[in-house]
Amino acid sequence: MERRKLEEHIRALATIEENDSPLISCYLTANQGGIVCREQLDARFRVLRKCLPARSVAEFEEAQRSIETFLKAGLSQRTRGVALFARAGERPLWRVLEFEAPLPTWIAVGSSPNIYHLMELKDNYDRYAILLMTETSARIIGVNLGSVTAQLWRSRPELRQRVGREWSKDHYQDHRRERTRQFVNDQVRSLERLLLETGYEHLILAGNPRVTATVRKALPKNIAEKVIDCVPASRTDDVSDIVASTLETFLAHEEMESQAVADRLITQLQTHGLAVAGAAASIEAVKSGQADILVIVQGYDPGRAWECQGCGRFSLALPRPGACPNCRSRRVREFDLRGELARIAELRRVAIEVVEHSDALMSLGGVGCLLRYSGPANYVYTAA
Questions:
Q1: Are residues 113 and 143 in the same domain?
Q2: What is the pTM (predicted TM-score) of this model?
Q3: Low-confidence ranges of the chain (pLDDT < 70)
Q4: What is the DSSP string of 283-329?
């Protein structure tokens, strides 16, 4: 699946209207055409069924059957992660997304789709291009969410048969060097055009180290700035192996960028700048449109919270009250806090940065926001 399609699915899921029917958000790790943790899926379904009020069990079981029926048919051999969203009742929902990138096994039920793991996938597995170069051929590969989505071939005609027949060896070597230089320049122009047309922001050079070094020197500054690594590869290597070798490099680069964002957030907090931390301040900043980037530590999972739809009061304290203690409204909704943060961020067009590890941010609640402008939310909450 391409990133653009994923973004369309995320947007559609984020805007689905809630109702009283239970909605299952099911993320599963897959391999060789099937799911990996079948026992965990069954156990989660049993637990979730017990957590629901009696009036919702029938609709939950109908949604569960839809998931079971789909999984029995099998998955693509290339699928490494699958996300399923199912709801029965008067306004049924059924949406399945398969990926060549992995997803965790995570199953929850609520009144709206939980899109956090899709947002995490989008952040971690961004798009990048690979230029695979040898002395005789070039291949430009577009990688999107861990899978190949575009290829562009350029081949250089073989000159060796002309040696000893028309040219001397020295003549051939001079011509070969000139043709190599011209060939590299041609591929650089093709690469520049492709990156401009497709919007790839990251590039990995692959091939013989001597050739990739020549290519790197020939890159214009605007393209050279996109290069994050050079990896060894040969013309005979399988594309999937090349992608696998570059994917690890790309994910490491993504984590470095995420760490830089987290460090910037901490610096802003230390200097009373444009940042807030903690669940309450973050959700307020995202909802108000003040947030520019929502930064979440990967292991952050604060559980559930509630909000009054009458006065907007938000609380991490559970259980949810029957009526809001602030305005006495009974329109009190409970939700998974991490999923709700991801949903509101999508609705408000707030970028999400998932950082693998940050002790400083975890000590402040595991979540924070870089802000567009200063305001009342410029203080720190800790997520209890």
A1: no
A2: 0.80
A3: 148-178, 180, 375-384
A4: HHHHHHT-EEEEEEETT----EEEEETTT--EE--SSPPSS-TTT--
